[in-house]
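In line with agreed milestones, work has continued on tokenised descriptions of protein folds. One protein thus recorded appears below exactly as we store it:

>
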Amino acid sequence: MTVEAVKGKETETEEASVATQLPEPQGYKILIALPEAEETTEGGIIIADQTRRIEETASIVGFVLKLGPDCYKDEKRFPNGPYCEEGDFIIMRSYSGTRMKIHGKEFRLINDDTVEAVVRDPTGIVKA
């Protein structure tokens, strides 16, 4: 999975269409974009579509698009501040959150305390 795959290689009109349809996270929810699985292995073998869908669904990496208005507001639960911010790549549990597809791209709404780590470069991170 690549950073470019998450940020998308769509045309400007497709990006605008997706952007206007993205849900606004409410409360303590975070809107996450999932990276698209690679189409080929490093050795050049083409990965089947079904295998790629399974890999995307089980992804543990996400890109933070939006934070709900109540994310990380509870100082007792988050004494050291927010776990992440918009624009971060995060590690989360597989299958967590509410899954949805918009124009073929998968997104999730997860709870603020579901974030387990922030990573600079998610390239090469896969579920073990």
Remarks:
- The beta strands are 29-33, 61-67, 89-91, 98-102, 105-111, 117-119.
- The longest strand covers residues 61-67.
- The chain has three helices and six strands.
